[in-house]
């Protein structure tokens, strides 16, 4: 399925936010109904890290194009093996192989945001990449009518609030609640405000705001 794009602008960052070097396919498989995947969350909570990783690898061998498995493999790399490098590589591999990219883009965006909080030297670059990933996740959801992941809408809602883009903030909030009601995370909101305020220039904030305006207008967010 081809993803809706926008007309090129004079702003390179905005253009990158709406550039999709892949196609999206509708994912109809339900991990709860599949023997190889249904036990992964339970194993994560109750088993040792090698056992749950073995189960994920088994699931990947059976379903190498299933985003759910890459999301969990990346999560396991961070939480069980404390390896953010392999976590990022897992999400990137999933973007190349999975039918659906929505959740993987959201997780990659969160990876960039989390790493920005750890390594101040890459703060500005990672923040830009995080926002780009979240915009792409939202754009895919809206253009393919598979609105399943509320998290990137919530994160962009925070950003719109900081940029005083009230119309876009409201649209993103509505879309978030239409998918599911995720409670606002005040700590995450505070971090975003701090990062945007300290590590982005006025010009960069204008680019981000322009990208949010285009996202909400072109993809009819919240409608």
The averaged pLDDT comes out at: 91
Note the gap between the termini: 21 Å
From the alpha carbons, calculate the radius of gyration and give it in angstroms. 17 Å
Counting DSSP E segments of at least 2 residues, the number of strands comes to 0
Low-confidence stretches: none
Q: How does the overall form come out from the CA principal axes?
A: globular
Give the ordered list of helices and strands.
HHHHHHHHHHHH
List the helices and strands and how they pair.
Blueprint: H1 12-17, H2 35-38, H3 40-46, H4 49-62, H5 67-79, H6 84-97, H7 102-118, H8 123-143, H9 151-162, H10 166-179, H11 186-199, H12 202-218
Helix pairs in contact: 4-5, 5-6, 6-7, 7-8, 8-9, 8-12, 9-10, 9-11
Give a structural overview:
This protein is mostly helical. It folds into 2 domains: 70 residues; 116 residues, no CATH class. It has 12 helices and no strands. The longest helix has 21 residues. The chain is globular. The two termini are 21 Å apart. The model has no long low-confidence stretch (mean pLDDT 91).
